[in-house]
Amino acid sequence: MEVNDYVVDSKLKIRVTPNAKKTEVKGVKDDLLLVNVAAPPDKNKANLEVVKYFSKLLKKKVKIKKGLKSKEKTLVIG
């Protein structure tokens, strides 16, 4: 699966499942990438893991624009 195919106008919409065995993209549902994150949701650890994972994967700077306290997030790529 090519993650770049889901980036629209430098934005990527994801649904995060924290406390997974490993951080990975699991699939797509309703135009959202389903992402498992190994980090727990407390103390912003899962958000930091999401930013780190997608920055490495896309080789670009990534920020969470929307959804800091939600499972559904909008990332800004650039």
Describe the structure.
With 78 residues, this protein is an alpha+beta fold. It has one domain (3-77): YggU-like (Conserved Hypothetical Protein Mth637, Chain: A, 2-Layer Sandwich), CATH 3.30.1200. Helices cover 18% and strands 37% of the residues. The protein has 1 helix and 5 strands. Strands 2-3-1-5-4 form a 5-stranded mixed β-sheet, with helices on one face. The longest helix is centred in the middle third of the chain and has 14 residues, at 45-58. The two termini are 20 Å apart. The mean pLDDT is 96.
Largest sheet: 5 strands, mixed
CATH architecture, by name, is: 2-Layer Sandwich
Helix/strand-derived category reads alpha+beta
Strand tally is: 5
Helix content: 10-25%
The CATH topology comes to Conserved Hypothetical Protein Mth637, Chain: A
Strand content: 35-45%
Number of domains: 1
Instruction: Return the average pLDDT rounded to an integer.
Output: 96
**Order of strands side by side in the largest beta sheet?**
2-3-1-5-4
Shape: globular
Task: Give the SSE order as H and E letters.
Answer: EEEHEE
What's the Cα radius of gyration?
A: 11 Å
Question: Unreliable segments (pLDDT under 50, ≥5 consecutive)?
Answer: none
- Span between termini: 20 Å
CATH class: Alpha Beta
Task: Give the CATH superfamily.
Answer: YggU-like
Number of helices: 1
